[in-house]
Every structure is written in C-alpha cells, then in structure tokens.
Design a protein that fits this description.
Layout (H helix, E strand, L loop, with lengths): L3 E4 L3 H14 L2 E7 L6 H5 L2 E6 L10 H10 L4 E3 L9 H9 L3 E2 L4 H8 L1 H10 L7 E2 L6 H11 L3 E5 L8 E4 L5 H16 L4 E5 L5 E9 L5 E13 L2 E7 L6 H17 L4 E9 L5 E7 L6 H8 L3 H9 L16 E8 L1 E2 L5 E2 L2 E2 L2 E3 L4 E2 L12 E5 L6 E2 L6 E9 L2 H13 L2 E3 L5 H9 L1 H4 L7 H4 L1 H4 L8 H18 L16 H4 L4 E8 L2 E10 L2 E6 L2 E10 L2 E6 L2 E10 L2 E6 L2 E7 L15 E3 L4 E6 L6 E2 L4 E7 L2 E6 L4 E6 L6 E2 L4 E7 L3
Parallel strand pairs: 1-2, 1-4, 2-3, 4-5, 20-21
Antiparallel strand pairs: 6-9, 7-8, 7-9, 10-11, 10-13, 11-12, 12-15, 13-14, 15-23, 16-17, 18-22, 19-24, 21-23, 25-26, 25-32, 26-27, 27-28, 28-29, 29-30, 30-31, 31-32, 33-40, 34-36, 34-39, 35-38, 36-37, 38-40
Helix pairs in contact: 4-5, 12-13
The structure holds adenosine-5'-diphosphate (ADP) (2 copies) and magnesium ion.
Length: 674
C-alpha cells in the first residue's frame, strides 16, 4: 500500500478521499489555487501545495505542474477525484511516465470511453444494448439531419466529448434541427474543444440507472449493484438512490453483467460506472461509461458497507479486489441529495457568497470503515465549513447529504428530517426545493423518470406559503434580543429580556408596532405589554408571548403553544428556521432611512461573473420583449440575457470572449416609449 498520495482535486471529494487515507494511515498532499488557500480540503490533508491561480486551467488542470509537485512531496500516487483531470488520458499517461501511480483506470480505457460515439461502437461489438441512433464518424449537417429523420423525432443531439449534462439538446421536429445542432456544436467546442455530435432516439419517461463496477489487475471484475439517478434537472442529477426501486433480481443481474462486459471490453481497472437509460418496462440501453469515482458513490457505500475509495487505493496498489461477486450484498436503502448554492426561484442560477451561517443535522462525516452509515443513518460529505465561500470558479455544490434506512420509507423519513435541519444563510440554496421534491407524491411513491421535476413544476415551485404566528414570534424574539444586547440592558435574566418588558418599553410605550417585509408582502405585528406579560398580535390572532434565547436558538411560548427555531440575523434580515422552513423576514426599521428604490433603468447587467459567449444583436437593433440579446457562460452554464421590454439596443458594452464581473452592465437599452 502507498504511504503518501497527492489528491489532485478540491472540495468535498478531496476531503472524502483524504478521510479514507487517514483511516488507512496514508499521508495526503492537498493542492490548492489562489481561491482555495483557506479551503477545508487544505486543512484536511497532511500537507498542501499551492499550484496557481483561481481559474481551473491555472491550477487544478495544470497536469505537469501537479505531477511535479507529487514528485517533489514524495507522493507515490495521485488520486484525481471526479471532474478536473480524472478522465484525462494524457494525465494518466504522464503520471505513469513520471513513475507515479494514477489512481484510476489505464489511459487506454479512458480513451476508449472518452468519446461517447467511439464507446458506443465498441459496446456494439461487445453486444451491450444501445439506444437506436447514429454514432458514426460523419458530421455533415445534412447527413445528421437525415439520420435524425430516419430515427424519428424527438431525438437527442449529444456532444460526443460531453459530460456534466452539457452539450445536449432535444430536437422535437425536423424544423428545429438546424438551430439545435448549431447550439450543441457551440457549447461542445466551447466546453470540450470538440464539436463532434451523435444522435440518439430521445426516450420518453426513461429512468437513469447506472451500475458501479470495479476491476483489479488480476482479471477480477465485479458490479456493486445499481444506483437510480432519474431525478434530474437539465440532465444533471439532483437525487440519487440505491437500490433502484422496483428492480428485480434477474434485471439486476442482467444489468450488472452487461456493465461488467462493458468494462472488460476496454480492459478496465479500478472504479467505473456504466450508465444505462431504461424504459419503464425495464429494457435498458448503454449510455456511457464514466471512468472515475462518481459523485453519487456514497449511496453504494451505504448499502454495501464498502469504502470505494479504499477499494480504489488497494486496486491501484496492485492488490486484488477485497470481495468477490457472491460476497457482495445489499443492505437497506440509501438516498443522496446534492445541496447546491443556487436559486431555484431564478432558474437555478448559481449563487456565490459566504456561508455566513451553517447548521447541519447530526451526521457522520464521510465514509467510516466498518460502519457504513453511522448511528443516525445520516452522512454528510462536505468541502466547506461555516465562514467559507462558494466562489464562481468551481462547481457550486455545498455538500452531499446521504441517508440510510432499512427500507426506502425509512430512508425518506430520515432525508426529510435531515433536510429540515440543514440551515444555510449567506447564499441561496436548493434545500427548500429538495424538501418539496422528497415530499412530492411522485418521489415518495417512486414513480421515477427523468421528467419528474418538469412534470411536477406546479408543486415543486409553489408561491411562498404565508408565515404563521410561530415564525413571526421567533423573528420578534430575535429582534428584541438584539435590541437588548445592543443597548446593553442589564436585565436580571439576559436570556429572556421581554419578561422584563425590555428595550421597547424604554422607548416610552407599552405598545409597539413592528413591520416586516416578507416577499412582496408587508406584515404588521403589534406587541403590547403590561404587568401580566406581553401579547403578540398579528392579522386576526392574538396570543400571550414569552421568549427565551440561547444565541441563535430561540424558544417562544404563544399561550399554550410552544415553538422552537433558529434565527440568524443579517443586518435587518431575520432568517427564521422553524419546522423545516426557512423564512426571511426583513425588518422595516422605522428609524432607518427609507431605502432608495432601484429601477433597472434600461441597464442589463450580468447576474453573476462569467464570460460573454454570444451577442445576438447590434447597436440599433429593434427588439421585442423576451428577444435573446446576449449569452453569458458562468459556472458551466449558459445564461441568456433577454430584452426586458420592447425597445432598441443602444449600446453593446462587451464582446464575445470578454470576462464580466457580477453586476456589470452588458448592454444599454431604450424601451419603446422613450
Ligand atoms: P456524475 O454522474 O458523477 O454526476 P457528471 O458527469 O455529472 O457525473 O460530473 C461529475 C462532476 O464532474 C461534476 O459535479 C462536475 O464537477 C465535474 N464535471 C463534469 N463535467 C464537467 C465539465 N465539462 N467541466 C467541468 N467539470 C465537470
Ligand atoms: P453526461 O455525460 O452529460 O452525463 P449522458 O449521456 O450520461 O451525458 O446523459 C445525461 C442524461 O441525459 C441522462 O441521465 C438522461 O437523463 C438524459 N439522456 C441521455 N440520453 C438520453 C436518451 N437517449 N433519451 C432520453 N434521455 C436521455
Ligand atoms: Mg452521464
């Protein structure tokens, strides 16, 4: 076994790999960019080397430099994690040439699976079932169009070199073909430097079911069962689970054996995932093979009790696989939710910023040898701590929340509870969205397919529910507590100042009206106090009010009802976490200056830092509301800036390829009336 390895990655996966190394007594070397000097993975490893600038190409993608650093620090092997250099065959080769072990498959296997079209040609020979489509060499637009017509619409155009759900367009009819092809090619060459595409029949209501495989250098190859990753948004996984609901033993064996055949066809070694797309009747087709450890590998660890990073290390060190196929078992059910810094109410725009407040449910961190799921059945794999930032440079994943239960229902109940206890302030997250998703009828009853989110939009994106007395009382308690502390009131019991009337009474009245903004609503709350105590009045309700605060943890009594919650205050925003909800109440301080109302003023600004990748208009162009004006790329996604109204583009301030900062004005625009 190795005594020291370098981890060529960042974030949760770098920490996760380091955790296993620590358990096995292997020293770890972290690498970090300018943006990551204080990152958790740096603190988590035994040593760390600075490798360059914030942009991935200046640091985490600097193959030669990373190899040099591995040699300089005396590491014997490099673990690439996922993303970055993990599926880069030149890097795998360069490691070998430098006398380092690449903890992953042979370069030849990465090469064979690197192009989706070439991989499909190989799989065809190995008799692995394929989706009807075209994956040939010819790239002539006319030919691709004829192939699509032959296959029958809808078809899916995919970048051969693609990954991460990028470079894919569904084409509903022949009319839409040309525009879709141009857009896939643009995205493919920008993201993967290769605009080759393939065409597939677009299956309706399919499920994404993938098989974890493992092979060693002694000719053994096993499958560690399946993961169902059907719950996706824009072809990116949102929730994953193992085993797949409804899977039969025969089908599991058939898929497992097809996956092993796929791996053997390319001389695979190490951890790999064979992704299949399956029809509701269970028939399945090969989609692609990911030649690395997958983001969602923890659900497999939870049900098999195996540490897949330990397996990777053993295989890379030349040991045989720890278990044979007939020694592997499925125990219980596991679910994983990817917690992202993004805003579900704004088309899931990635959100950057500081995790100013972060409270998580009781959980084990990463994989624990011999104890797959920990006593609470909850595991968190995270690369960030409170106070850390989510920068625009890398994937905006905050953490993976993984739960285990003896069956799917128990796992679901744990997931609901764990999500309700996952509290973040400082940036937008998808936590509330995930909560609605796991509670949805479709997910609860395992009525799974890749269109689940789209089909259930109405329930997954509801109007914000009105807030009740509990949430208001918690915000009021936090406000009074803050005032008491700010004014240094020397109350006998500092934790429950309002039992003594508190600051507001000093202001000269026993009645006080507090006004909060909640979304587009204004909430008027009245507090009255007399010798017998306080009363809280809101809408048509009135209740006796008492509160006790222990830092962020607040308890309120409303007559006979008691409510607990956490309230984190950011300036005048009261973030109330209560009964699984996160409500933001903005206190409208009557003493503060009335905020100047900001109009867009005909400016069109960048919603986040990124790069301009296309400009569709010219100065003087007359456009109607909703016309796409410019496309930006930020955090691996395209964002289209559209005309806010009918009008004329008066100026274009950035050209294609230019980098823009958040809030930068991109275009000047004059509306029709002016
Ligand atoms: P998985 O099935 O494991 O989620 P994905 O293909 O979605 O596999 O990608 C895994 C990870 O690799 C992503 O979370 C992302 O960070 C990274 N990744 C994938 N494709 C790209 C890409 N084109 N550019 C940068 N990172 C990528
Ligand atoms: P990536 O490399 O980005 O992961 P995949 O080929 O694995 O690309 O496809 C990603 C997702 O797109 C799948 O999980 C599935 O939801 C959807 N998808 C891919 N191929 C098809 C298809 N032929 N029909 C319907 N959906 C598909
Ligand atoms: Mg895939």
């Amino acid at each position: 076994m190795f005594s020291k390895i370098l981890i060529a990655n960042r974030g949760e996966i770098a920490c996760r790999v380091a955790a296993t190394c620590r358990r096995l007594g292997i020293r770890t070397v972290a690498v970090y960019s300018d943006a990551d000097a204080d990152a958790r993975h740096v603190a988590f490893c035994d040593e760390a080397v600075h490798i360059g600038g914030a942009a991935a190409r200046d640091s985490y993608l600097r193959a030669d430099h990373i190899i040099e650093m591995a040699k300089e620090t005396g590491a014997q092997a490099i673990h690439p994690g996922y993303g970055f250099l993990s599926e880069n065959e030149a890097f795998a080769e360069a490691c070998a040439a430098a006398g380092l072990v690449f903890i992953g498959p042979p370069a030849s296997a990465i090469h064979a699976m690197g192009s989706k079209s070439a991989a499909k040609q190989l799989m065809e020979k190995a008799s692995v079932p394929l989706v009807p489509g075209y994956h040939g060499e010819h790239q002539d637009a006319g030919l691709l169009r004829r192939e699509s017509d032959r296959i029958g619409y809808p078809v899916l155009l995919k970048a051969s070199a693609g990954g991460g759900g990028k470079g894919m367009r569904v084409v509903e009819s022949g009319d839409a073909f040309e525009a879709a092809l141009a857009s896939v090619k643009r995205e493919a060459s920008a993201s993967f430097g290769d605009d080759k595409v393939l065409v597939e029949k677009y299956l309706t209501r399919p499920r994404h079911i993938e098989i974890q495989v493992f092979a060693d250098t002694h000719g053994n190859c096993v499958y560690l069962f399946e993961r169902d990753c059907s719950v996706q948004r824009r072809h990116q996984k949102v929730l994953e689970e193992a085993p797949a609901p409804g899977m039969t033993a025969e089908r599991r064996r058939a898929m497992g054996e097809a996956a092993v055949a796929a791996a053997k066809a390319v001389g695979y070694v190490g951890a790999g995932t064979v992704e299949f797309i399956a029809n509701q009747d269970g028939s399945f087709y090969f989609m692609e093979m990911n030649t690395r450890l997958q983001v969602e590998h923890p659900v497999t660890e939870m049900i098999t009790g195996q540490d897949l990073v330990e397996w990777q290390l053993r295989v890379a060190a030349g040991e045989p696989l720890p278990l044979k196929q007939d020694q592997l078992r499925i125990d219980g059910h596991a679910l994983e939710a990817r917690i992202y810094a993004e805003n579900p109410d704004k088309q899931f725009l990635p959100s950057t910023g500081t995790l100013r407040f972060l409270r998580t449910p009781p959980a084990v961190q990463f994989m624990r040898g011999g104890d797959a799921h920990g006593p609470a059945g909850v595991r968190i794999d995270a690369g960030v701590r409170e106070g850390d930032t989510i920068s625009p440079y890398y994937d905006p994943m905050i953490a993976k929340l993984i739960v285990w239960g003896k069956d799917r229902d128990e796992a679901l109940a744990r997931m609901r509870q764990a999500l309700a206890a996952y509290h973040v302030v400082g940036l937008s997250t998808n936590v509330a969205f995930l909560q609605r998703l796991v509670k949805s009828e479709a997910f609860r009853t395992a009525d799974l397919d890749t269109g689940l989110i789209e089909r259930n939009e109405a329930t997954l994106f509801p109007q914000p529910a009105p807030v009740g007395m509990e949430i208001i009382a918690l915000a009021v308690a936090a406000l009074l507590d803050r005032e008491t502390r700010e004014r240094h009131i020397d109350a006998a019991d500092q934790h429950s100042p309002w039992t003594h009337a508190g600051a507001w009474r000093l202001n000269g009245g026993a009645t006080r009206t507090l006004r909060f903004a909640y979304g587009s609503h204004t909430l008027d709350v009245t507090l009255t106090a007399n010798a017998r105590g306080s009363t809280l009045i809101y809408a048509d309700q009135a209740a006796p009010f008492k509160a006790a605060c222990q830092a962020d943890d607040i308890r309120v009594d409303l007559g006979t009802r008691r409510a607990h919650g956490q309230v984190h205050v950011e300036r005048d925003d009261f973030h109330v976490f209560n009964a699984g909800r996160h409500a933001v109440l903005g206190w409208l301080d009557p003493l503060a200056h009335a905020g100047e109302t900001e109009g867009e003023g005909g400016k069109l600004t960048a919603p986040m830092p990124g790069k301009v990748i296309a400009v569709m208009v010219e100065p003087g162009s007359t456009v109607t509301r909703g016309t796409p004006l410019l496309v930006m790329e930020a955090m691996k996604m395209e964002h289209t800036i559209s005309a806010p109204a009918d009008g004329v583009v008066s100026e274009i301030l950035f050209g294609v390829g230019e980098q823009v900062t958040e809030g930068a004005q991109l275009l000047a625009f004059a509306t029709g009336e002016s």
